[in-house]
Amino acid sequence: MTPETYRLLHVVGAMVLLLGLGGILATAVGGAKPAAVFTVLHGIGLLVMLVAGIGKLHKDGLGWPNWALAKIGCWLLLGALPILVRRGLLPRLVALLLVVGVGATAAWLAQAKPF
């Protein structure tokens, strides 16, 4: 596959991940389990993003630059957010703001490659 295909898959994975997170945050009221479809979308989005992101790094021959490691940190946080909300460690509004902030940070890291 071409690097552009990996980039497209990475962006589609991000959209699926954010759709799943939005659904989880909207339906997980009072510690209740969110609808299964949103949990599945969250997991599929995480997997597609990881595979496509690593594939693009490999195709571009970049190795593991620091900005990519920072994006993996963003990926880990977005993956853990539903658990933190469900256990009551993070209010839903704070989690929603974190999703927007972490997503914007990951996009900036991909564009600017600051380090």
Descriptive account of the structure:
By secondary structure, the protein is mainly α. The chain has 4 helices and no strands. Helix 1 packs antiparallel against helix 4 and helix 2 (36-60) runs antiparallel to helix 3.
Topology:
Blueprint: H1 3-27, H2 36-60, H3 66-86, H4 92-112
Helix pairs in contact: 1-2, 1-4, 2-3, 3-4
- Count of DSSP-assigned helices: 4
Whole-number mean pLDDT: 94
Give the helix level as a range of percent.
over 70%
C-alpha Rg (nearest Å): 15 Å
Beta-strand fraction estimate: under 5%
- Biggest sheet features: none
How many strand elements?
0
| Oligomeric grouping of the chains | single chain
- Structural class based on helices, strands and sheet pairing: mainly alpha
- Separation of termini? 27 Å
Shape: elongated
**Sequence stretches where pLDDT stays below 50 over 5 or more residues:** none
Q: What number of structural domains do the residues give?
A: 1
> H/E order of the elements?
HHHH
In short:
This protein is an all-alpha fold and 115 residues long. It contains 4 helices and no strands.
List keywords for this structure.
elongated; 0% strand; single chain; mainly alpha
